[in-house]
């Protein structure tokens, strides 16, 4: 089978995210990204000093539950007082969209590059946010079919607000069969076997997510941490208690930072909720934000089950893992401008976020269709642009020539009419003739669109090709990485695709290190 083609793309994001990626955001919002091996070594040594003598791996071992290459790498890093590169994502059905995998491989590539450049042992860790309660996000994924993008979703079986680590999965055999069918003959069916083993009827959404990611990532040396595991909660608790005790000052710091962000012409990524702290307490798996007025009391309750909201989580991670950098998506980079204010209020060094690698996978069959259409990836990014080109090409030349003749004749006749009117002491105002011209040309334009649509409808093969290409590369007018589940592609191409993705991520890591 031919190899897929990997197209590296700009990460994009909001104006704030793009400014941060370009190094144009205010320095107090983001710690400076090291440039070159020496600067990265200095940052790594700072992290090592903070964790000297720490037994962080012993405390988190059961939450990581590593095996194989991932276990060996973590042990080596912990024994040498090394560092980690982290990334993470909340659960998505069947592992979520492609960018989940791209995040993990970006962390692996940066860890490899830093270890090689600095000589300091470094491991990648994926933070599986099973403490998330967003069922709407966790309950679906998408696959590309012939001519359309298909959304696969599951019903909620637990109470609203329950964390995904405790949300029942139920019987999703039908959804699995649809995903497996999208893989076709699937010469590398072991990935489907691993998925089916993880997503069984007795699993939870979070548990299935963690189990599948471990089967996929651990052979490459990437450990997966379960955020809702008791060991993770225990390690995070001191930071969460401190955040409760300092809730008023954290809220004030966050409010001031959001004002600064807005005054600079940007929009804060995460809204501030007045009178609520950044800490959740959970009862029977259902989370609720702790009110600032109650924060001190909750902090002293030893039996409270605590977890962090999105702005506090990177600070917690920085406290329990020797993280030298976090691999972030565009939205995460934007909200790290607020995270630094939270870290400062807690007296903790601000976490460093670096952009993940962004890419689109163009499989051979899709590439052949692009070739038949005479198009490249950029041609199908904007809605209707590719369809317009098909209609233009399908429309007979005689029809195009006739339309051009109509426009030319109208221009000449209306121009002559205007001259006659002017010679008769402006029989009618010029605007009357100009208005008529606009109305008539508008009708001609509408006629042209109808003729083009009719011609396009006759170009059946091209219409089918563009629908299939768009479903695979720009599903729902979104980037492929944000919608399409990668499992069918992995089942079709196996290690060949993974090797290509790892190579692309490695080039991106080189640009991040800057040496």
Structural commentary:
The protein is an alpha/beta fold and 515 residues long. It folds into two domains: 315 residues, no CATH class; 113 residues, no CATH class. 55% of the residues lie in helices and 13% in strands. A five-stranded parallel beta sheet has the order 6-3-2-10-11, sandwiched between helices. Strands 8-7-9 form a three-stranded antiparallel beta sheet. Strand 10, helix 14 and strand 11 form a beta-alpha-beta unit. It is globular. 45% of the residues are buried. The model has no long low-confidence stretch (mean pLDDT 92).
Which structural class do you get from the secondary structure elements? Answer: alpha/beta
Radius of gyration: 28 Å
Main sheet: strands, sense, barrel: 5 strands, parallel
Question: What is the count of distinct domains?
Answer: 2
In whole angstroms, how far apart are the ends? 36 Å
Number of strands: 12
- Proportion in β-strands: 5-15%
Q: What are the segments in which pLDDT stays under 50 over at least 5 consecutive residues?
A: none
Chain-averaged pLDDT: 92
Q: Which geometry do the CA atoms define? A: globular
Approximate helicity band: 40-55%
Tally of individual helices:
20
Spatial strand order of the main sheet: 6-3-2-10-11
């Amino acid at each position: 089978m031919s190899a897929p083609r990997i197209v590296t793309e700009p990460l994009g994001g909001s104006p704030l995210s793009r400014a941060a990626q370009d190094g144009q955001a205010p320095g107090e919002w983001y710690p400076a990204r090291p440039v070159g091996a020496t600067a990265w070594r200095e940052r790594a040594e700072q992290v090592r000093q903070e964790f000297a003598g720490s037994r962080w791996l012993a405390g988190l071992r059961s939450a990581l539950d590593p095996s194989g290459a991932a276990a060996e790498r973590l042990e080596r890093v912990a024994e040498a007082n090394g560092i980690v590169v982290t990334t993470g994502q909340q659960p998505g059905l069947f592992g979520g969209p492609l960018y989940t995998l791209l995040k993990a491989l970006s962390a692996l590539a940066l860890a490899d590059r830093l270890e090689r450049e600095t000589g300091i042992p470094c491991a990648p860790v994926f933070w599986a946010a099973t403490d998330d309660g967003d069922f709407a996000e966790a309950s679906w994924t998408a696959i590309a079919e012939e001519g359309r993008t298909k959304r696969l979703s599951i019903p909620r079986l637990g109470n609203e607000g329950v964390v995904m680590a405790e949300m029942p999965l139920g019987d999703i055999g039908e959804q699995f069969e649809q995903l497996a069918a999208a893989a076709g003959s699937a010469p590398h069916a072991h990935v489907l076997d691993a998925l089916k083993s993880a997503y069984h009827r007795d699993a939870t959404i979070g548990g299935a997510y963690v189990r599948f990611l471990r089967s996929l990532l651990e052979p490459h040396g990437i450990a997966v941490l379960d955020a809702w595991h008791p060991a993770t909660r225990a390690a995070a608790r001191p930071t969460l208690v401190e955040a409760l005790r300092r809730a008023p000052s954290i809220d004030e710091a966050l409010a001031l930072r959001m004002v600064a962000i807005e005054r600079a012409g940007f929009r804060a990524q995460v809204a501030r909720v007045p009178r609520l702290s950044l800490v959740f307490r959970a009862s029977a798996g259902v989370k609720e934000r702790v009110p600032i007025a109650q924060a001190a009391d909750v902090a002293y309750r030893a039996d409270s089950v605590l977890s962090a909201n999105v702005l506090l989580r990177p600070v917690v991670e920085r406290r329990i893992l020797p993280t030298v950098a976090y691999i972030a998506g565009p939205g995460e980079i934007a909200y790290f401008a607020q995270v630094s204010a939270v870290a400062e209020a807690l007296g903790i060094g601000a976490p460093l976020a670096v952009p993940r690698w962004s890419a689109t996978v163009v499989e051979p069959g899709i590439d052949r269709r692009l070739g038949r259409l005479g198009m490249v990836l950029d041609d199908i990014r904007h809605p209707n642009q590719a369809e317009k080109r098909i209609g233009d090409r399908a429309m007979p030349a005689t029809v195009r020539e006739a339309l051009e003749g109509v426009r030319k004749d109208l221009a000449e006749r209306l121009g002559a009419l205007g001259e006659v009117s002017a010679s008769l002491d402006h029989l009618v105002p010029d605007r009357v003739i100009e208005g008529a011209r606009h109305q008539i040309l508008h009708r001609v334009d509408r006629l042209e669109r109808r003729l083009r649509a009719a011609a396009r409808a006759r170009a059946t093969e091209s219409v089918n090709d563009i629908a299939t290409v768009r479903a695979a590369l720009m599903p729902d007018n979104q980037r492929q990485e944000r919608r399409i589940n990668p499992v069918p592609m992995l089942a079709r191409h196996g290690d060949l695709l993974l090797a290509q993705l790892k190579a692309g991520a490695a080039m991106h890591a080189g640009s991040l290190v800057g040496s």
